[in-house]
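BUG: 3D viewer hangs when loading the predicted structure for this chain

Environment: internal workstation, default settings.
Expected: structure renders.
Actual: progress bar stalls at 90%.

Input used:
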Amino acid sequence: MYAKRKTYVKNEKMNEYLNSLRFAFYCMSHPMDGFWDLTHEKRGSYAAANTILALTLIVRIMKLRFTSFIFITVYWEELNIFLYIASIIFPLALWVIGNWALTTLFDGKGRLGQVYMATCYGLLPYPVIQLPLMLISNVVTVDESEFYSVISAISLVFCGVLIITAMGQIHEFSGAKNILFTIASLFAMLVMVFILLLFFSMITQGVAYIVSLVREMLFRM
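Structure tokens produced before the viewer hung:
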């Protein structure tokens, strides 16, 4: 009886996960209604958001290996895959924190987790479009390269539009206010980068000073 109950609960969780993952496609085709229901009707899940983010990272890495050399030239000996992944995760984290921090001060309704979830859901067009485009890149000619470039740019613009729409829906902002806070969030990201660089610079200088001081003491002893 316990085993059946455990299996039932497991199946229910799996169904909820799959439904929330499928709902991402609804958000992609009906962003206004989709992103409202995502948080207000609780139709999204962190598991699905994490899956979409993981797919985005995987496709991004696969592009380096499987995209035609006509479009991407990769110097593998100089590539640090961990830094490459961080170059995607870090701006995402800055965006989520910056947007949440600013909107919280001005009556934004979205919580930090909701901003993260909606942002990840907004990334879905990237793996959906870039994965087949990556394969197509190996069969198109140089003369057809503009087709690849345009479709690739569309996937990025599509993601941006979805994320901006998502922020407006979860924070319940008007269109003009949403655009204003989108720009403000980008500025907040730059400010946070500056503060982090300043912090690490001070830490580096402090460590260097302590090391030089210890060396001087050891030399005098």
